Amino acid sequence: SSDFEIHHNGSQNWIENNATFALGISVHNKGEYAAEFKANSSVDLYYDNSKKLETTSSGVNIPANNLTIDANNGEKISLKGTANPYIRFYESSTAKAYLQWDAQGFLNLFNEESSKGLRVGANGAYVLDGTYISVGSDEDLRIYHNGSDSFVNSQGDGHLYIRGDDVKIQDANAGHNMGVFIEDGAVELYYDNSKK
């Protein structure tokens, strides 16, 4: 058969490359690819003879350093998956982090180097045990839970201020007062919710 054919089979139009080498489409300059179609392999798209997209056995690869998606006019960018779809971030070939929607209804942001993460769900944001919520350029204030105990650490040069018109310290379960600090008034200390 011929290496290259254009024909109509009665219901479809065909461009067929019967040779073992790739079929290329060039524009203006001969030898500069606009597209390249390889048998049993990839389809490659080019800009100014520089490859920008190629199909693979598992999907699509974008070899360029940057991917720009223009959504300035209200278009939607969607990621769809049958279960727990995610976006993984790599540095070279090393996985660094991922963003995932899971079956429990959480959006997870996870750092694979430190094994620390943040989860956002129906009731708010969550961080894993041993993960700090840090405030300040030098992490001067830290709030965290280590799996057993909870901590508020002020580790900068300044003071830790707790401010309010009236400030109450209560137990976690029954809401019983342990200490009440009244603006321009008394400081009340309690034993088993009884003021002493």
Order of helices and strands: EEEEEEEEEEEEEEEEEEE
Beta-strand fraction estimate: over 45%
Radius of gyration: 31 Å
How much helix is in the residues?
under 10%
Number of H/I helices: 0
Mean pLDDT: 85
Structural class: mainly beta
List segments where confidence is low: pLDDT < 50 over at least 5 consecutive residues: none
Shape by Cα distribution: elongated
Please specify the SSE layout and strand pairing:
Layout: E1 4-8, E2 13-17, E3 23-26, E4 33-37, E5 43-47, E6 50-55, E7 60-61, E8 86-91, E9 94-101, E10 107-111, E11 116-121, E12 124-127, E13 133-135, E14 141-145, E15 150-154, E16 166-170, E17 177-182, E18 187-191, E19 194-195
Antiparallel strand pairs: 1-2, 3-4, 4-5, 5-6, 6-7, 8-9, 9-10, 10-11, 11-12, 13-14, 14-15, 16-17, 17-18, 18-19
Question: How would you describe the overall organization of this protein?
Answer:
This protein is mainly β. It contains no helices and 19 strands. The radius of gyration is 31 Å and the shape is elongated.
Give a quick precis of the structure.
This protein is mostly beta strands.
List the keywords.
mainly beta; about 200 residues; 5-stranded antiparallel beta sheet; elongated
